[in-house]
């Protein structure tokens, strides 16, 4: 029984410190489609193009921050474990990315409803 608890505790400690996420793990923030209901088809397409052009850059930044945070987390556990408990991850980037994904979904819903 003793052999079971030590690996379980180590797993929980090492897996739960950083809240950093990869871009593929971030879910979109809900943005009501009504937010874009007054837009014309042309305005919706321009706004969608603008958001789509920013997403790859945001994904790259989010993934880079994820890798950096996970590397720092491992180093913190090996060198000075209390520092690993204070890591904040990439929550700011996650929020911005999730909002843009949600905005894009709302725009696409309006494009579909207006038969653009």
Helices and strands in order, then pairings?
Layout: H1 2-15, H2 41-79, H3 81-85, H4 91-113
Write down the overall mean pLDDT. Answer: 80
Sum up the overall morphology in one term: elongated
Low-pLDDT residue spans: none
Number of helices: 4
Explain what this protein looks like in three dimensions.
The protein has 116 residues and is mostly helical. The chain has one domain. The protein is built from 4 helices and no strands. Helix 2 runs antiparallel to helix 4.
Can you give me a brief rundown of this structure?
The chain has 116 residues and is mostly helical. It contains 4 helices and no strands.
List keywords for this structure.
116 residues; elongated; mainly alpha
